[in-house]
TrEMBL record:
Organism: Aestuariirhabdus litorea
Protein name per its UniProtKB record: PilZ domain-containing protein
Lineage: Bacteria, Pseudomonadati, Pseudomonadota, Gammaproteobacteria, Oceanospirillales
Molecular functions (GO terms): cyclic-di-GMP binding
UniProt domain PilZ: residue ranges: 12-109
Amino acid sequence: MPSEHRALPRKRLKSVVPVTNDDTGEAVGRIFDITVEGFMLLTQQTLAPDTLFNFSFSLPDERIGPAEIKLQAVCVWCQGSSFSEEFGAGFRLANLSPIYKPAFQRLVAEF
């Protein structure tokens, strides 16, 4: 993984949050940790850095906002995980609609 360039600390989620690639309709992985600026996915496949992805995921608790969040994120890096046979991939948020932003921020803060 490249040296740390984040301004915000990462938070590991307590809930499993599967992520879907909206361009293919396939499950791409699950969120491992998150900030308001991006997240790390654990995935079974390598993902190309500098690629823009359209993702969606369901919230662990629908009371915090829309049941599903859709966003665009750019893959910053991808490498084999040091603790499993999966790959870790870091993403920077590229586009998050204002209707999803409060729910996304609460996901970061509460889960």
